[in-house]
Amino acid sequence: MDPDATHLWIHANLLTFDRAKPHCGLLKDHALAVRGDTIAAILPTDSPEVRAFKGKITDCRGKFITPGFIDCHTHLVWGGSRALEWEMRLSGVPYAEIAKRGGGILSTVRSTRSMTEEQLVEASLPRLEALIREGVTCVEIKSGYGLTLEDELKMLRVARRLGERLPIEVSPTLLAAHAVPPEFAGRTDDYVSLIQHEIIPAVAKERLADAVDVFCETIAFTHEQCHRIFASARMNGLAVKGHVDQLSNSRGAELVAWHNGWSADHLEYLDDAGALALAKAGTVAVLLPGAYYFLREKQKPPVEALRAAGVPIAVATDLNPGTSPFASIRLAMNMGCVLYGLTTDEVLAGVTREAAWALGRADRLGTLEVGKQADFLVWDVTHPAEIVCQLGTNIIPERVFRERTCQPQT
Ligand code: DI6
Ligand code: FE
């Protein structure tokens, strides 16, 4: 074992998510050693090196350890509230009709534009704290409620500041192509040009985002427009991902795969050709059952086709004020099982190993492996399925983020 290891967790059931092993890569009664912010060793608890260890020891008494959870698709920075719109939807007014009356994404754009960076940080903190309490150690945060150069940069700075305020890693994503802003009504191509030639280069120059996302849909941006945006992203050294094939099949998954994207998200209308394209490119399918639930959709993503093609599947909250207003990764996992028919092993891998791939961070995050970042969770459960089935309880006695133990705040 690494002689400089400082802290050892013993008698743990480790869910390593080693791809070569079945059932989440379970290692029974093992010890996990940490040096600095890195996993230094993984050994059976009864090995001589563990017995000889002189540093700090935590006895897990058979509890489970997983990698820190990764929520790889959120829009958690926003201003205002859409609760009244939700009430209207409950009474039967469709989402598209609300948007036509000036609500929907554009209502959040108005509120978000009117707020300062500090106000947006304050408004977003409780949502991020809720994710942290449930074991999230890395979160993707999209812009997309600014829709001007200034306001998109503002949102991305808020995302960065949130990562500085709380013990969590933030992966920021530019989503300027979320909706056509009112100033560009009827001139979508001009807005796309602004994104290509001004917004993406400015974001890349200030290193404010890792990736560029789009909403590729009949009600948003066309396949062709998204292609232009992705080409600009790649020229500027940013990764690509997309909201694709959610409400119709616009061959969005193929487009993301063609650009070697990190992930294709939603995918309710994905077909076999799309699934094969994702598999070939190694693009992760990110499933978002929360939006499906809140919109009372009927069309489910083709889980069987994704499995058959060997596409890695991640699960995320899609936390946003309109279609997925909940800050709970465990509820998203539960919905993945109950609504989409995923297995508990699949959703657990979907918020660890596969979510790390979806954020281009698989070299550092997502599995328990020597050399990876020491982000992990101790779970007070007798079986991993309890993490997914039992909601609302605080069953994480210890959350370790880069070697610092941060008790989930209550
Ligand atoms: N992600 C989105 O960005 C849109 N739907 C989705 O699943 C809508 C977000 C919103 O209504 O604010
Ligand atoms: Fe989304």
Description of the molecule:
It is built from 16 helices and 16 strands. The mean pLDDT is 96. The two termini are 36 Å apart. Strands 1, 2, 3, 4, 5, 14, 15 and 16 form an 8-stranded mixed β-sheet that branches. Helix content is 37%, strand content 21%. Helix 9 links the parallel strand 10 and strand 11. The chain has 410 residues and is an alpha/beta fold. Bound molecules: 3-[(4S)-2,5-dioxoimidazolidin-4-yl]propanoic acid and fe (iii) ion (FE). The site of 3-[(4S)-2,5-dioxoimidazolidin-4-yl]propanoic acid has 15 residues, from helix 4.
In terms of topology, how is this protein built?
Elements: E1 7-15, E2 26-35, E3 38-44, H1 48-52, E4 56-59, E5 64-67, E6 69-71, H2 83-90, H3 95-100, H4 105-113, H5 117-133, E7 136-142, H6 149-165, E8 169-177, H7 188-205, E9 211-216, H8 223-235, E10 239-244, H9 252-258, E11 263-266, H10 272-281, E12 284-287, H11 289-294, H12 303-309, E13 313-315, H13 329-338, H14 344-350, H15 353-358, E14 376-379, H16 385-389, E15 398-401, E16 404-405
Parallel strand pairs: 1-4, 1-5, 6-7, 7-8, 8-9, 9-10, 10-11, 11-12, 12-13
Antiparallel strand pairs: 1-2, 2-3, 5-14, 14-15, 15-16
The structure holds 3-[(4S)-2,5-dioxoimidazolidin-4-yl]propanoic acid and fe (iii) ion.
Fe (iii) ion (FE) is lined by residues 73, 75, 243, 318, 320.
